[in-house]
């Protein structure tokens, strides 16, 4: 039996359940996955122009003159992802901006972060544009709408 006495710390399992419930509630009120994919799209776009890889003794450097463009696009995508989490009412603007920046990253930033940033950015922007907030309360039919019921005389067959 769980009892909370003054001076006793709550059990870790109860605390974890409360945190998980609060996170689910927070996540349900905003375009969480759109922000996640949008922020994730900025990471490979930022990484590839500045990475120096060594493949079996052969240096592989993807550094190009587009490093500044990749930096700007990557930082903006991460910022747009955080904006989707913080300000859900800006979802359409953030979604369209994400789609445009992601498409621009294809020629500017090493094929959009070797297609990783391009694909995740397109998914995130599409999710942001399509997300709608959950309606709070019960939905009722508007009073100014005409009734769709068929009058008794028109519904009868015969004469």
Structural write-up:
By secondary structure, the chain is mainly alpha-helical. Helices cover 60% and strands 5% of the residues. The protein is built from 7 helices and 2 strands, in the order ααββααααα. The chain has a two-stranded antiparallel ribbon. A hairpin with a 2-residue loop joins β1 (52-55) and β2. α2 (32-47) runs parallel beside α4 (91-108). It is flat, with a radius of gyration of 25 Å. The N and C termini lie far apart (74 Å). The model has no long low-confidence stretch (mean pLDDT 83).
Please give a handful of descriptors for the protein shown:
5% strand, 7 helices, 159 residues, 60% helix, two-stranded antiparallel sheet
Termini distance? 74 Å
Number of strands: 2
Biggest beta sheet attributes: 2 strands, antiparallel
Alpha carbon gyration radius: 25 Å
Ranges with pLDDT <50 over ≥5 residues? Answer: none
> Count the helices. How many?
7
Strand content: 5-15%
What's the average pLDDT?
83
What strand line-up does the widest sheet have?
1-2
Shape: flat
H and E string: HHEEHHHHH
Helix content: 55-70%
> Helix- and strand-based class?
mainly alpha
List the helices and strands and how they pair.
Layout: H1 12-28, H2 32-47, E1 52-55, E2 58-61, H3 67-86, H4 91-108, H5 110-114, H6 116-130, H7 152-155
Antiparallel strand pairs: 1-2
Helix pairs in contact: 2-3, 2-4, 2-6, 3-4, 4-6
How would you summarize what this structure contains?
The chain is mainly alpha-helical and 159 residues long. The protein has helices spanning 12-28, 32-47, 67-86, 91-108, 110-114, 116-130, 152-155; strands spanning 52-55, 58-61.
